[in-house]
UniProtKB/TrEMBL annotation:
Pfam families: GATase_7 (PF13537), Pribosyltran (PF00156). The active site is at 15 (nucleophile). HAMAP family: PurF. In the C-terminal section; belongs to the purine/pyrimidine phosphoribosyltransferase family. NCBIfam families: purF. Mg(2+) binds at residues 305, 367-368. This is Amidophosphoribosyltransferase. It catalyses: 5-phospho-beta-D-ribosylamine + L-glutamate + diphosphate = 5-phospho-alpha-D-ribose 1-diphosphate + L-glutamine + H2O. It comes from Ohessyouella blattaphilus.
Amino acid sequence: MNKFEKVTTGTGEECGVFGAYGLDGEDVAASIYYGLFALQHRGQESCGIAVTDTSGERKMISKKGLGLVNDVFDEESLSSLKGNLGIGHVRYSTAGASRAENAMPLVINYIKGTLAIAHNGNLTNAVELRKELEYTGAIFQTTIDSEVIAYHIARERIKTHSAEQAVKAAMQKIKGAYALVVSSPRKMIGARDPFGLKPLCIGKRGDTYYLASESCAIAAVGGEFVRDVEPGEIVSITKDGITSDTSLAVEKGQEARCIFEYIYFARTDSKIDGVNVYHARIVAGKALAESYPVEADLVVGVPDSGLVAAKGYSEGSGIPYGMAFHKNSYVGRTFIKPKQSQRESSVKIKLNVIEEVVKGKRIILVDDSIVRGTTSANIIKMLKKAGAKEVHVRISSPPFLYPCYFGTDVPSNEQLIAHTHTKDEICKIIGADTLGYMELEKLEEMIPGLGFCDACFTGKYPMEVPGKDVSHAFE
């Protein structure tokens, strides 16, 4: 691929999924609510919960809508969601797909009963699969990949003996990144793509089992972390316990976990595939201090995902660590706002510089990434206006050069500042005194021994990706 060729990826999501199965018959809607609350950082556009009672009529009840978890649900709506098996979802999308009908979980009724699905990720062959289904009479209600997955699972279930076999057969057709939580009338099934691009883990509290995108959500409901779902693994949870199928996994060494989970997306108190996210970010900060030393008075981080890397930089350099910003916690993440105009306006109300901390000082500012450059430029301008003498920017990821096809909201090359500008040019554009990015070869230090995907930095994708513009194929 030519470095300067314009590429636009499909509609991507970096979402959060959560499932709960109370084997003792207790209602699980409240647990799912708190689990989703802990995963709210993964998506603030829409959310939903679907539950069923495994001992009763096995009818699926669901509620979903646009907004945050505590906007969509209240005590009354949660108490109406009666059932001991259920799944939930928080979502964000790229521009053009902010629609109520795209909220998950998806609930479909078919000849074998009812199926609910929650999905985090992005398929690379969704367009072809969707067309194939449409030509055989399928009618789609949404514009998301998850409906394609749900149709395939439902169709395979008619031909197979169990829901797990149907999920497995569907996984052999779909390509891309995904963590799935599927609820059938008597089972909760979790599945992770063969490369392990998206995280998924198992938890337990008493007689209730959980599936979650991150371990922090299991801790939030008082559960005990059991283990990660392995790349390519399908787990099925029933009244008889957990069964596992790992036959679709790629060979060891070929896994491609999304490195951005450790750099940015995951919460610092989560542990993914045995690696503590907090520790990974400390390591990143120390690596930056080693690669880009500079004389300064204070190291500060951009809240929230730059804070731990800043602490690591401080530890690695011996320069004191300080808090330079007050963050308004009621403003959502700027990186995942659907429109650029929303991103720019929300930066100004999200952070405020504490003048007493930075005035007259040489500041090292640590952040997790520079995507478009707008946020960084605004923050540096604020620091200098507050009296900072110098601002040296250190970024705990390498430059974004290539689009992500697997669900991270980096939609097109033309919007990536590093794709069309050199490091020196970016430094000047954002108004920094110096600029240093994480070195590619040091990424491995963050998650030693684990295979990971760094295609957004290198252009080396773990699988074949579309070479054409598919961004509005579903609109």
